[in-house]
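Researcher: I'm comparing several assemblies side by side, and this is the next one on my list. It has 454 residues spread over three chains. Same procedure as the others: predict the full complex and return the structure.
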Amino acid sequence: MIAVQLAALLVVAVGAWATVMARDPVRQAIVVSLYGLALGLLFFAFQAPDVALSNIVIGAVALPTMLMLAIAKTKR
Amino acid sequence: MSVLPYVVAVWICLVGLYGIVTSRHLLHTIICVSVVQSSTYVLLLAVGYRQGGVAPVFVDIPHTTPAVDPVVQALTLTDVVVGGAVTALLLAIAVQIEKHLHTLDPDELDPLRD
Amino acid sequence: MDEQPPRRPGELSFAARRRLFLVGAAGLGALLLWGLFGLPDYRDVVPLYGQVINHSAVEERSSTAVVSAVNFDYRGFDTLGEEFILFAAVLVLALLLRRLSEERRDRHEWKARHEHTTSAAVRLTCAALVGPTVLLAVYITAHGHLTPGGGFQGGVIAATALLLVYLGSDYPTMQRLRPLPLVETAKAAGALAFVLLGLAGLIFAGAFLENFLPLGTPGDLVAAGTIPLLSVAVGLEVAGGFVLLLSEFLDQLLVIRRKQEADS
């Protein structure tokens, strides 16, 4: 169990850095979706299935969708 | 090793703040705000964890099995959903800003100018 | 960064701003780490409140998923506040993205924007997935007091089902499936049901949001008193809220246009 948590923590740390470094909003939408998935796996490793379910649905599905719609609306 | 979750939580918070400070696009800034929020989720869950603890669901195990903290999970769970809705609100504000001022560059958006 | 807008007097350049931030972040990071290292090892101790709830929730509330019991019973008042934050956020978003006086609703505009036809594979997958997604949402909401889940997750999954409908077909089909008055009524009804159940707890059992219905045995579908009812109320409200969020963004993108321009 402890190795899974370590790996998940490192993946999340790298994912946060990648989300911030993706300057183009379209690219960032995909990266933030993967970050949400990585966070969900971290929450599973920490024995929190409710939070993981919540985060996967919001952070990996609803948030990138709304970001994409906002990008499409603001592109000139 | 015993403090790795705390280090990762602080790292995520600082990385998100760096993104906010150096951002050139308002939508990118909003997503960095959501990254800063996620650092608090990691910290909360790390505080409530126990070595060898199971998830606080007692359908098929006796309820005296040592489990992780449910209160922290309840806080984080509602936080995630409501944070998503507030981020959507921020995106709507950004859409309206672009409509009226025709730019999404934070450097060019000055509330005191003209 | 390539070119920057002309700097106003007193404003920092990009490189100077970044250097200033790194200095500040180093200080903040040091302070945070010093504070957090004072906490006990994260693997050892669980806060006392959580331990007490873990030991007593299954017998006291007949609910096997303790997180839902905390959300809807022990800390139900906090959930009421969070639910109304979501309500207010969706309200303000609907206000922000309304049709302004210089815009008009063009129902046929989405056809002009419809540059690519969705591939048959995407349409088939989305059509096939809508049913199971709605079923999953109802299952997770109804079993909130037994297994991980509850109203919050189930509501957002239900909103995702509508998104699948839009992805698999086109805008008018999705419009037919979400009559806005019904969605808004459902959202308000969910919020109202939560408050009414709390008031009923006040009337019948002496405390706001007190669990006053018969508790049943742990593990049954109809058990744990008001917890499944509150879960359904929250599910309705969250589903209505997120469907409204998605609809406002899609409307803005596809339907609302400035009055003078022919294209945008």
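Model: For your comparison table: Residues 70 and 83 of chain B are 20 Å apart (CA to CA).
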